Amino acid sequence: MQQLKTVAFHTLGCKLNYSETSTLSRMLENDGFVKREFDEQADVYVINTCSVTENADKECRQLVRRIQRRAPEAMVVITGCYAQLKPKEIADIEGVDLVLGAAEKFNLAQHLQGLTKGDSAKICSCDIEEVQGFNSSYSINDRTRTFLKVQDGCDYNCSFCTIPLARGHSRSDSISGVMQNVAALAQSGTKEIVLTGINLGDFGKGNEGGKRTESSFYELIQALEDFDGIERYRISSIEPNLLTNEIIEFVAQSKKFMPHFHIPLQSGSNKILAAMRRRYKRELYAERVAYIKQLMPHCCIGVDVIVGFPTESDADFTDTFNFLHDIDISYLHVFTYSERANTHALELKPVVPVHTRNERNKTLRNLSYQKMQYFSALHNGQTRPVLFEGADKNGMMEGYTDNYIKVQTPHRPEWANNIVDWVLN
Questions:
Q1: Predicted TM-score (pTM) above 0.85
Q2: By CB distance 3.0 to 4.6 Å, which of 12, 151, 308, 406 could disulfide with 172?
Q3: Domain of 309?
Q4: d(CA 258, CA 154)
Q5: Cβ within 8 Å of residue 91, ≥6 positions away
Q6: Under 8 Å CB-to-CB from 277, ≥6 apart: which residues?
């Protein structure tokens, strides 16, 4: 491994992937590697993949081709969800040297030892049922907000989703393990931690000293509130059926948890929710949103929604549009349904034409823009705390209010990673 001195990373997909990439980067730097930007020359390139959409698969192939052109002698390592789901397919991509599945991702340094260019790609994968351990990870130095992984895997079986196949069963860090990471982050100067997981509200399943833990997400946020050293926390995404009134009430009176929820919906049609095998109906979702707004009228609520799911008729999509239009949410993350191997959704007919899926995506993205504009305008004239990020973007810097309204202002280095009272306009 002596000759492998520089490494560059690229992340596809979710915030949890970013936290894991950051951790892998620190592990290799501790082993003597020097980090490079992905568009620079490096000895090793690591791509941490997603497989939620078809685009992530295509993007992985394009990135490998780009590396081949720039640095044909470099080692190329593919890990992440796509690597777990389709290791042989990835190994056949010209230029790939190593494919690491879910159980081997955090053993990257060991796998690089003795790896030589020119051999056929080495696959280190495993049966997903064998993935037992929890590897904590967090992003640091990459941005002001730090993403801290506290939970991994999922025991749900949504009909469109490959994540249980890619990441295994639900498991968590212990509360004491989370607190150790939080203490380290506080020491490094982190101001805001975003709690991330695959099914965050399921926190509590895992191993502590070899024993099954029975703690809950509610107990975790109580422990974090009591910790002195971090000023802000956000909950990245939480299923509506796991977002209890107890959690909502806690955030409403918290000094540290921001008034901001991201709650996946996926469809506003109960017929489609049933076909997706989601664990709630839209009525429950509407109740959660109404209760949040009752306690925190200023709270920002983000929504995940999938368009073009098999059997989604024009009437079903209209149901979704009207539901989202009428409830008091702030923005949407819109996903166009794409077929994933080994999912139940492939058996559902009729299939929605791709051009119709794309039109529906555009319609909901327009609605999202209008919702965010309206939400932001409601707060004009208010003074809210903004955590500014350090990056100088053409003489400007940006940050987010406690309730996730983006603010831009001329760059002032002394404001970087600091919370400033800001009058919104």
A1: yes
A2: 151
A3: 137-378
A4: 25
A5: 99, 120, 121, 122, 123
A6: 156, 157, 158, 159, 344
